Amino acid sequence: MTQIGFFIDVTKCIGCKTCVVACKDKNNLEVGRNFRRVYSFEQGVFPNPSLTHVSLSCNHCDVPTCIPNCPTTAIFKRAEDGAVLIDHDKCVGCRYCEWNCPYDAPQFNEQLGKMTKCDTCFDLRDAGEEPVCVTSCPLRAIEFGPIKELRKKYGNVSEIKGMPSASITKPNLVIKTK
Amino acid sequence: MDEWALFIFTLAVQASIGSTFVLYLFNLRSSELKEDEAYHLFRMPLIVISVLSLLGLAASFSHLGAPMNAFNTIRNIGSSWMSREIVLTGAFIGLTCLTAGLTIVQKKVTPWLMLVTAIVGLIDVYAMGALYATTLVSGWNSINTYTSFFGTTLILGAVLAVSLVAPKFSKETSGINAKGIIRGAFAVAVLGFTIQVVGSAMFFTAVHEVTMIDAVPASSILANYKGMIASGWIASIIGMFLFGYLAVSKSKKTFVSLTFTALAIFVVAQGLSRYVFYVMPG
Ligand code: SF4
Ligand code: SF4
Questions:
Q1: What total of structural domains would you count in chain A?
Q2: What is the ipTM of this complex?
Q3: pLDDT by residue (tens digit) across B45-91?
Q4: Taking the mean position of all CA atoms in its chain, how far away is CA A170?
Q5: The domain that contains A71 carries what CATH number?
Q6: Domain limits at A145?
Q7: CATH class of B3-279
Q8: B interface test, pick of A61, A67, A72 with most B CB neighbours within 10 Å
Q9: pTM for this structure?
């Protein structure tokens, strides 16, 4: 299995949320349901304040706490690329995974009554393309691919100040910090 | 607070579990009762408890987005506390209905079945606690989740059981040790209250780490609910005094109405505390 993951370049991100909107458009998401979200962290005080934006979706974690807690076994880690997906034939819409994910990745679809989330745009990937967040970012701040390669290129940082500890779920996420 | 379904579900099922347990204790203390007296005393309470637990079950179903997949929820019993809780709750409700049904059909109570039902229920309360305590929600990951649930179970169980049997005193059941029963129930409520006080003290001295993005620590959220938290405790204390009075007083006239007053006060008290519990996810 080649585990996939995301690289987020915090030094480039300006918090414009184009990735959020592109993802909403691709997945037809109504107001309030966002497979990708941009979080902004303010730090420091005058004269050295800083504002950091981090774009996050599901991190397709190595220790996905969502999976053992789901009562229906609907959430699973796909064998071929380690993407964490939800089987809608099983999901009962209990929303328990919302309380068991540090990154707010599971997003409830009211109409379906079931949980939904980032699936790494596997239809686009099957067609040889990149996930839509990657291609939409005007600053090229997001990359997607085998996590080993991303880590080799960009290092091992998976959290910045203000984010939950990466030790909880071991997210497949690399962040380039300032 | 968005979790009204779970609010009703946890309160109703915990009250049912607690009152099954307390009714079993009543039965233990009423060995001098004749079979038909015991039947008259316990029939209605057992029916009310099973109806209440079924109401809780209905509320829990309304929480599900896709209830037709409900049977899937027991698939992950090996690792999901929610699966375990659902199996135990199902077993408790099944046993409660069986106990009530058998009582009606056989015209006598089956104490060992009440005991089994109560034990399954008490294990279920632990599972309910674990379901919340093992999440990443700030404030739930605390011993207070367990103490709060067990406290509710004992307090509501005791006062509900007393309210359900009180109207039967002195009518069909001359041989009953009414005062002994009320004192026993009061002792159970005192235990429940003490557990909640201890758990709450431990909660407010603990540091609540935030393990979810964009979340606020429980302590900052609860700061907005100080009035509600205080009202809950005040109601509990008033309820305990009233319950204590019922346990020692000799007057019979107002007894039944006062037990129902105590029940109402405790429902409000535990309701306020449970409401505050469900605001913690923010
Ligand atoms: S980010 Fe959340 S939903 Fe995605 S795998 Fe990790 S724990 Fe599960
Ligand atoms: S909402 Fe669906 S995927 Fe999430 S825990 Fe419940 S059954 Fe599992």
A1: 1
A2: 0.92
A3: 999 999 999 999 999 999 999 999 999 999 999 999 999 999 999 99
A4: 13
A5: 3.30.70.20
A6: 4-176
A7: mainly alpha
A8: A72
A9: 0.94
